[in-house]
Amino acid sequence: MPQTADDLDAVAVRTWCSLALDALGREREAIDAINVYPVADGDTGTNLYLTVESAAAAVEAVFAAHETGTSVPSTADAVRAMAHGALIGARGNSGTILAQLLRGMAGVLAEGAGAGSLRAALARAAAAAREAVAHPVEGTVLTVAAEAAAAAGRAPDAAGATAVAQAAYEGARTALDATPGQLAVLGRAGVVDAGGRGLVAVLGALVEAVSGRAPEGGPVLSTAPAAPAPAPEAAADCPGDDPQDGPAFEVIYLLEAGDDAVERLRARLDGLGDSLVVVGGDGLWNVHVHVDDAGAAVEAGVEAGRPYRIRITHFAADRIHARPEPAQRAVVVVVPGDGLGSLCAEAGATTVLARPGEPPASGELVDAIRRAHAREVVLLPNDGELRHTAAAAAEQARAEGIRVALIPTRAAVQGIAALAVHEPDRSFDEDVVAMTAAAGATRYAELAVAERQSWTMAGICQAGDILGLVDGDVAVIGEDVPETARKVLDRMLAAGGELVTLVLGEDVPGTLADALEEHVRERYLAVDTVVYRGGHQCAPLLIGVE
Known about the structure:
By secondary structure, this protein is of the alpha/beta class. It is about 50% helix and about 20% strand. The protein contains 19 helices and 16 strands. It has helices spanning about 10-35, 45-65, 75-90, 90-110, 115-130, 140-155, 160-180, 185-190, 195-210, 230-235, 260-270, 295-305, 340-345, 360-370, 385-400, 410-420, 430-440, 480-495, 510-525; strands at about 250-255, 275-280, 285-290, 305-315, 330-335, 350-355, 375-380, 405, 445-450, 455, 460, 465-470, 475-480, 500-505, 530-535, 540-545. The chain has a 6-stranded mixed sheet with strand order 13-12-9-16-14-15, sandwiched between helices. A 4-stranded antiparallel sheet has the order 2-3-1-4, with helices on both faces. Strand 14, helix 19 and strand 15 (about 530-535) form a beta-alpha-beta unit. The longest helix is centred in the N-terminal third of the chain and has 24 residues, at about 10-35. The two termini are about 35 Å apart. Residues about 1-5, about 225-245 and about 315-325 have low confidence and may be disordered.
């Protein structure tokens, strides 16, 4: 449950980033599906998710730096980290604009975090984002941000931060509903603006962060009621009204340069293409533009300063009718221990190590997909908490021309089961279906040590108790590992099973595996047991039943 303090202190900023990331993770596919402007490339939701993921990671890093002490970061530290993280991780047109919105808010909130500061921060954010866009267009995220700020400004002077945030959220929702009547391409498609919908999700997370409650109002819909198209002269002011006829490349890079050089760069890039957004300041900028001559856009950055993290996307690659047949296939697996990493690597998989308390970010998963050097990739996240991260990574890789299938495995033993039936010689679809079926037929459990007294589905546990979690819920509370493991196995095998998989943690003696194998052999006929060493992992024992 988020905190309920009606204020935006550092903890609330951290909560806001986490809730915003969750919200965009849930909405990512729906936002991608309605992305028709400025280019119908179906990645706005993914880009917004990746931008906020970078912002959230930067805030977490600030908190991690304070873990050795007794204090938490200041609000100024938290919001500046949020803004910097969004700036360096911004993706796409909407992600770049969102980064500037967060930067605008941070500049005000660093000086004060009350209701009045939040009202001013929203106004500054909307103005800063509009200034960053070379040719602002109504009916986009810029309009939604402006109306959110205006609604927040109309909140009573005595209102707290919750009321201001709620007003901004409601103003944004109202503005979003109106976008199809402001931008012809949205009206023809019958959808609201994708970037605006993402901003509504972020503002909804802000309401929950300061109030502890989800915002009032129903879910935001993907589509909007049919609206009359704008007048011809208004439509003419919308660059890229037909997204398929726009420039061939999207160019994004970070740039170290002074203010004067950036102003000259804006003018140069404005003459090369459209959808120009330059955000940042204090010597560090994020540049985004759509052009036909990608080389010229990069050269302009070199003349202005030092460009790096250069990303060039060829839109035409997303519009071709068919891609050539893949030459090879690979599996990318997230593993909770080095022992399982070696096991999966021996089976031919590319592995990503999930360290305790440090789940991999989408960038790490994308890097692993690239390292696999395959045209077709099956991604096994092996953790329910990674579902949004893995989905965003898969979408990034697809944008690079890699065919990716994400099998939503929730535990390492499900990943092992899927990998065991992987056959690269059969068709991609058949392979994915078989691997998905194997994972889905595997129930999973793990043993963990309770850190504190807590209520669970199995009753009250005390610190130091051994917890047996089956399919993610606490099912058994015990005093020692062997007895708890036997009870978990009995619960799981009561529903039947043919194969038990045991993965032992680094400090668990091999005698435990021997005892559990004997238990299964004596009580359950025709049930086989396989044992693996997981190495250093957070759980002493992982169990799978197929």
